[in-house]
Amino acid sequence: MPANAIAKAVRAAEHPAVEVVGLALEAIDASDLNAFTAVHPERALARAAEIDAVVARGEDPGPMAGVPIALKDLIDHEGETTTAGSGFYRHEAEASATVTERLEAAGAVIVGRTNLHEFAYGFSSENDWFGPVRNPWDPETSPGGSSGGSAAAVAAGLTPVAIGTDTGGSVRVPAALCGVMALKVTHGALPLTGVLPLAASLDTVGPIGASVQDLNLGFRAMRGPDPADPWSVHGAPMPRAAHVPLRLGVPRPWVGSGPVDRPVLDAFDRFLAAAEDLRFEVVDVDLPNLAPFGRLDDLAGAQVARVHREWITKGRPYGEEVGARVRRALEVGVDDLVDALAWQSAMKDLARRAFTDVDLLATPSVGVMTKTIGVDEVSVDGSTAGYRPALSWFTALVNVLGTPAISLPLVDEDGSPPPSVQLVAPWWAEETLIAVGRRLEREGLAGTRHPTEPWWLGG
């Protein structure tokens, strides 16, 4: 069942939380996705029993009562070990991350910790230390990353909601490649306390789910400022009132250039035509200078270097790909960072001007829909391209802007999984993204379609 239906049934004492969590644990145990680095059955069942006791007393355990949650192994959970998918990092958490505390306060049950790209620094979730996460649609393909285990868990129906982090697309990319949904929030909307940073000025925590309602449930449980988090925005503006239909802007040449497969663009064009049929106004937005990457490597690299400099210079073990990226990050100088900050400011100004004319920007979620495990290149219209730019072409710039975005799989599209669309909103307009996403679901334009052949069971 979706998360909201589970919570309703548990709160009404129609289904015990122990039963719901037990089924999730059985599914995880039977799966062969390598989606989890650790599972906590005893703790999860004890927590579920506490929720059932609250219900039995006639009290409300919260809006996420009994909902099994998978937590990315980058986010602290009191008493558990955070590995960050690393070969050496082992942090015994004495306190939970703020978002973890808020999920549990809302009644959610953390069932385990999900596998990821090492230190969240990549888009494949092919982990040198824990092994690759496998896509529920095809065991030979990547689920994307870095929150690959979280997306795979939702796509396989192991948990209805999973929590990831997103620094350049790390909830949206795996959601797209696994055929599920993800919400990237405004930077500062969800606290980062207790989350191991990659590049803190770009990092966000976000939910992955099978429905927009479930994204909303997770977002509402976690949102709000945290005095302990210097990146958390205090006194943030009230969320914008949601209204649909809206004016959708297609940013050119961002869309239509770069390593983007023709079937992805064709599916995106069909989405735009269908949106017009639903009375959305679709217009081209001429933003030739709003382009991905630019100085992103310098902007992120300086922050990555700050986290990893001591570890890598002392010879701590890194996987080949991530180690090479960290060493490149160490080469970013002060002048490079200043130039990158100026570029970021210019990109934000372009986005502000765009949002004076349109309500949302629309792009595909990813440039290609398939990445084979162990192969660093992807096929783009018969040619090859590096997998990182192809997967992050439409997502990374959103983190530079700091704006929210939602990734939605398209219904009635060929493909396993189907192509996905990204909608980007102005700062603090998550409510608009949720409202638009729910409308697209109701109209049958967007929605999750799970794999029909569960190869991962009994593997």
Describe the structure.
This protein is an alpha+beta fold. The protein contains 14 helices and 17 strands. It has helices at residues 3-11, 17-30, 41-56, 98-105, 148-155, 172-178, 212-222, 262-277, 296-313, 320-329, 334-355, 387-392, 396-401, 430-442, and strands at 36-39, 68-72, 81-82, 91-92, 109-114, 126-127, 131-132, 161-166, 181-184, 204-209, 247-252, 281-286, 360-364, 377-380, 383-386, 405-409, 420-424. The radius of gyration is 20 Å and the shape is globular. 57% of the residues are buried.
Brief sketch in words of this structure:
The chain has 459 residues and is α+β, with helices and mostly antiparallel strands. 36% of the residues lie in helices and 16% in strands.
Could you give the topology of this structure?
Layout: H1 3-11, H2 17-30, E1 36-39, H3 41-56, E2 68-72, E3 81-82, E4 91-92, H4 98-105, E5 109-114, E6 126-127, E7 131-132, H5 148-155, E8 161-166, H6 172-178, E9 181-184, E10 204-209, H7 212-222, E11 247-252, H8 262-277, E12 281-286, H9 296-313, H10 320-329, H11 334-355, E13 360-364, E14 377-380, E15 383-386, H12 387-392, H13 396-401, E16 405-409, E17 420-424, H14 430-442
Parallel strand pairs: 2-5, 2-8, 11-12, 11-13
Antiparallel strand pairs: 1-5, 3-4, 6-7, 8-10, 9-10, 9-16, 13-17, 14-15, 16-17
Number of helices: 14
Q: Give me the count of strands.
A: 17
Terminal Cα span: 24 Å
Helix content: 25-40%
Describe the main β-sheet briefly. 11 strands, mixed
Radius of gyration over all CA atoms, rounded: 20 Å
Helix-and-strand structural type:
alpha+beta
The outline comes out as: globular
Poorly predicted runs: none
The strand line-up of the biggest sheet is 1-5-2-8-10-9-16-17-13-11-12
